[in-house]
Amino acid sequence: MKNLASATLAAFVISLPALAQQQTPPAGPRPDPLAAAVFPPELIMQNQEAISLTEEQRTYMMTEVQRVQSQAMTVQWRMQREVEKLAALLRQDRSDEERVLAQVDTVLFVERAMKRMQMTLLVRLKNRLTPEQRMKLREIQGVGAKPRDD
């Protein structure tokens, strides 16, 4: 039972859904507020020709994606280590609340770093696209009106 709880907690904390591709909750369709504002790297890559991506843009984007992937691996290893520490604290017969919450803070800090890297990548890729390319990607996504630029 303890192993199941630890595994469930670890899976919950480690799961880092891509910000731009979050699933709609089953309670009812709610539009993703980020979908029209940023573009997943896969969407750009799969539609390079359709959006007339230049060689300079392609090179920049590939470099950025590779940089983030490299950093993400390091962060994922750290996340796993910190979750294991948290699980060990929780497996004790009597868990020290202060130590558990301090470890939760550490886990959340690492998770924040991962999400920040992901968002940085999405913003950099979006900013490298022309207005026409962004409009074309929105059409491909089937997303509504253009978000405000303020």
Largest sheet: none
The total beta strand count reads 0
Uncertain residue ranges: 4-21
Helix percentage range: 55-70%
The level-1 CATH class of one domain: Mainly Alpha
Secondary-structure-derived class: mainly alpha
User: In one word, what is the shape?
Assistant: elongated
Distance between the termini: 51 Å
> In CATH terms, what is the architecture of one domain?
Up-down Bundle
Determine the mean pLDDT.
Answer: 83
- Total helices: the number is 5
Our estimate of the beta-strand percent is under 5%
- How large, in whole angstroms, is the Cα Rg? 19 Å
Summarize the structure in words.
With 150 residues, the chain is an all-alpha fold. The chain has helices at 2-14, 41-46, 55-91, 97-128, 131-141.
Layout of secondary structure:
Elements: H1 2-14, H2 41-46, H3 55-91, H4 97-128, H5 131-141
Comma- or semicolon-separated keywords:
150 residues, Four Helix Bundle (Hemerythrin (Met), subunit A), 5 helices, 66% helix, elongated
Structure at a glance:
With 150 residues, the protein is mainly α. It contains five helices and no strands.
